[in-house]
């Protein structure tokens, strides 16, 4: 039975690298992987998934209004898709996560989603929250804080390196914008003893 998977972590954990390696494994065995990424994130170029270590591959894009079930049903009618890979899965809408669950359930195609769990404020992205609720298999991709402990949080910085505590949930950026930290150092960076005030 096909499953919906969610590989989650903070920034700079290697999610895109893992996705590209897994997709390559399918391709190498003569199977067809279908790669999707969020249209909003074009840092590597439009319709491209790329990792910090230099790997990259072309992908189709999705926007908030894309019906992923209808799209994958149409694609599956044209060719035998072995697995669907979704990068930047935190940008999925809750409805799109349900659509991907239907792809696994009704079309029998495994769906592997890779994305962030929480934003710079420590809050779940809506797509990630729905994936945590619906995914058949949850896998944490680990990275480390500067202290050596597991990084589970991320801070957003401005161009001078100052930590930002407010702003829109979505701001596209990489190492110049985000820094992965353990919860203790994230709290310290925010200047909070317990975490952000509600």
From TrEMBL:
Record: residues binding ATP: 9-16, 87-90
Gene Ontology process terms (BP): DNA biosynthetic process; thymidine metabolic process
Transmembrane region(s): none
Entry GO terms, CC: cytosol
Protein localization: Cytoplasm
EC class of the enzyme, as a word: transferase
Annotated protein name in UniProt: Thymidine kinase
Biological source species: Puniceibacterium sediminis
